[in-house]
Design a protein that fits this description.
By secondary structure, the chain is mainly α. The protein contains 6 helices and 4 strands.
Length: about 190
């Protein structure tokens, strides 16, 4: 939040910085705690893991880059993100995103509503996917389904094997950065 341009008062900027700091710290803490529970296979913790992982992968860099003062722990988060990205393929990155999206909302290609003229109108509601560099990948439902089948097919025995393999690969990387739990809230 370096550039305010007088759109917000100083108090509003400080409140926003504080809220972003809390959210960022929660992503880090939750991801590491869930990583410690990697042997637990209940669906709730698994879904929450993918949400925290994805939010950290996608949103942390821009948050950290917006900080005026960074601590070494912020640099460690950036290193962890890069290390995770190096240890997964583009297709596996897509699947992590897919799992996050499935945990947060339903996939729809459109939804219908009644307009003021009482006619049924359709609004596109495409789910956006990103590559590892943050570029938008445009896929329709058919392309998403085929990509999922291809990725899971690489593991031969179904989706469960893919999830186990990814967790095995990511677990030591995330565990290595466990000191991130001590991230403090910037005020």
């Amino acid at each position: 939040m370096k550039n305010n341009d007088a759109k917000y008062s100083d108090d509003e900027v400080n409140d926003l910085l504080f809220a972003n700091s809390v959210i960022f710290s929660q992503w880090c803490n939750n991801l590491i705690e869930l990583n410690d529970l990697s042997n637990i296979t209940d669906k709730y913790h698994e879904k929450f893991f993918y949400v925290c992982l994805w939010e950290l992968l996608v949103n942390s860099s821009s948050y950290i880059n917006s900080l005026e003062f960074r601590e070494s722990q912020h640099e460690n988060v950036l290193k962890m993100i890069e290390e995770i990205k190096q240890h997964i393929s583009d297709d596996e990155y897509f699947m992590l995103q897919y799992y996050r999206n499935c945990s947060c909302h339903i996939f729809l290609t459109k939804y219908s509503y009644l307009g003021k003229d009482w006619a049924i109108k359709d609004k596109d509601n495409r789910v956006t996917f990103y590559d590892k560099k943050g570029n938008v990948i445009k896929l329709n439902q058919y392309e998403i389904r085929n990509k999922i089948k291809n990725v899971i097919g690489q593991y031969g025995h179904g989706e469960g094997y893919f999830k186990i393999e990814i967790r095995k690969r990511l677990n030591p990387i995330i565990a290595k950065y466990k000191d991130l739990i001590t991230l403090k809230i910037e005020i």
